[in-house]
Amino acid sequence: MNSDQKFVTAIFNELFDKNLEQYVESLSKPLNNDSDPYAKARNALATLNHDSKADLFAFFKVVIADSASVILGTLDGVHFPDDIDGNFVVAYDEEEIQGDLMDIFIEKAQEKKIYG
Question: Which of 17, 20, 37, 70 is 20 to 30 A (C-alpha) from 11?
Answer without folding.
Answer: 37
